[in-house]
Amino acid sequence: MSRSPRLRRVDSMLLHEIADIVAGLKDPRLGFVTITGVETSPDLHYARVYYSVIGSEEEHEACAEGLHAATGHIRGEVGHRVRLKYTPALDFVTDRGIEEGIKISKLLREIAEEES
Asked: Which residues 6+ apart lie within 8 Å of 17 measured at CB?
């Protein structure tokens, strides 16, 4: 499904603001989190927020707990910063793409070293 230019602008704006808000949180569980994408529903009532964490499974779980605990605060801040008719409900979803890319790069380096 193709996203409308307006939804892409809203997604981009929310991505920027949510990343800024999360970076300012003092929760140590959110130390290595990166907001990687936002997909807003066409009615602007919901936003799926993708995030990435580089670390152990325990760090992934701690980060998920920290984001869940801060969801209300983050949504409130978004409401103050962004001029939208509705402040979307936020659903944080793990994005393991960066982590998988690192694993693939490591494997390719190991193969190259074995061949030399």
From this structure: 77, 78, 81, 82
Please name the residues in contact with 62: beta carbons below 8 A apart, sequence gap of 6 or more: 29
Q: Residue ranges of the alpha helices (H) in 4-96? A: 5-23, 57-81
pLDDT band at 1 (very low <50, low <70, confident <90, very high): low
| Secondary element (H or E) of residue 38 | strand 33-40
Amino acid at 33: V
The predicted structure's pLDDT at residue 105:
81
pTM for the whole thing? 0.82
DSSP letter at 29 equals: G
pLDDT of residue 101: 73
Identity of the residue numbered 10: V
- 4-8, 13-17, 66-70: least confidently modelled range: 4-8
Structure tokens, 23? 């970076």
Domains of the chain are 5-115 (3.30.300.20)
- The values of phi and psi at residue 85, to 5°, are -60, -40
Contact 38, 22 (CB under 8 A): no
